[in-house]
Amino acid sequence: MVTSAGAAPDGGTAPDDRAARIEDWLVGKAREGEPGAYEELIRRHRDRIYRIALRITGDPADADDVTQEVVIQLWTALSGFVGASAFTTWLYRVVVNRSLDHRRRSRRLADDEPTETDLPSVAAPERSVLAAVELQAGLEAIARLPENQRVPFVLCQIEGLSYAQAAAVTKVSEPTLRGRLARARTTLLAEMRSWSA
User: Fold this and answer.
1) Are residues 12 and 35 in the same domain?
2) Global pTM?
């Protein structure tokens, strides 16, 4: 709960509506230059920023870099946020764009890097080791998707955005987004079939 000067909006509204009003209040205070409000916004969204960056870049170190870049960028970029969309929609767009830029800059695709995908030769590998390797293979498969499929997949399947929200973030129509998401699912399903064999 925010307790800095100028109380956060309160009232007998639904929790989602109340959360949105508090977020709007925090954004307004952060745009006015109040560091506490900015820090609270970052605290609320830092994990989500990292998750989106990780799924798009496919690399934890790159995701850390993107998260740091976004946190720094937001302080100055908030002045450009005019409220034409929800703050989270705008934030997702910033994270997606920064992640794609970082990925293009680094050009470190999973296929070009040496990976440890071979299991060690052991008589009875632990289930957790197999699960970790399968998870890594899944992350690498997501990272290999074309970006126009990877971004909708991350936003809808991993972050849980609705089709309409993800379409707003990616600036495409909802039918286009659904088509790209369907292609991403088909590609990933084909790639991951080898794990169930």
Assistant:
1) yes
2) 0.61
